[in-house]
Amino acid sequence: MGWSDEIALNGQTLIFVLKDEQGQPIDGASVTAQIIRPVQDGHDFTVTLIETENHIYEAVPSFPMAGAWFVRIHATWQGKSYQSSKTMIVR
After folding, report:
1. All residues at 6 or more sequence positions from 24 whose CB lies less than 8 Å from its CB, including other chains
2. Which residues pair with 19 in a beta bridge?
3. Is 0.90 surpassed by the pTM of this model?
4. How confident is the model at residue 59, as a pLDDT?
5. How far apart are CA 74 and CA 83, in angstroms?
6. How many DSSP H helices and E strands does the chain contain?
7. How far apart are the first and last CA of the chain?
8. For residue 6, how many C-alpha atoms fall within 13 Å in the half-sphere facing its CB?
């Protein structure tokens, strides 16, 4: 599809930006994040990201502990699905 994304953690806020093949922000998508603790079972959870006025999708997940987390984003827009992932360090 040629889409691109950015996944970041700004303080406690999970930020996701999705752009189309022309580099324009995609708005109106349904976005969830599956958050996985890769070194310990029983702490995985899913959050829904909400779109802000700036076409940025955000959530404030409640990480039960600091350390490495694997974030898998799933976005659906106009019948098309997009996935991306990133390992993040929570302090």
Report:
1. none
2. 4, 25
3. yes
4. 98
5. 5
6. 0, 7
7. 35
8. 13
